[in-house]
Amino acid sequence: MTPPSRRAVAAAALATLLAGCGGRAEDRATPAARGSERGGTPASTGAGAAPRPLARSVPVRLLIPAIGVDTPLLQLGLAADRSVQVPPVTAHDRAGWYRHSPTPGQVGPSIVLGHVTVGAYGDGVFRHLARLRPGETITARLANGARPEFAVTRVRTVAKAKFPADEVYGDVDRPELRLITCGGPHTGDGYQDNVIVFAALTGTAP
User: pTM of this prediction?
Assistant: First the structure.
């Protein structure tokens, strides 16, 4: 499937910013950026050198030791209304990678979505995402065996009505990661905010 254009992404963002997250199976998360098919060379962590981008390979797992996350990754696409799919609401909650975004380690923002709660099942896989702090490590496991590591650069909680779509989904010139869930007050219409974690590639794990 051809990745959505920036214009399509922006339109979808406006349509879904006020959606709930994790309360009902039909809820939708805010949409992710247009994808990237750019490859790269293996990462290098030589002294003083920025890590080089990795080749494209589907992520299969995500680990965030600081908040106890070790989750398989589903692949998410677009729903009929052009919003990004979210992981299903199940007892064994898992995060999902938006398959039209770069894979972790490629240049650009790789997008991972997860629930903060999963309805009657209780807490979601990203229930403690807002507790992350700059410098803490996130590791992805890719299908080709690579393990790109990222360091958190910042964590933001923003009202869904003011979701910074360009900042989250826009092009960047290095490999980055975006983790997105819901947060803030919960009403009958769902959570009012989004929690967004920004992270940058630091190298690869052995």
Answer: 0.80
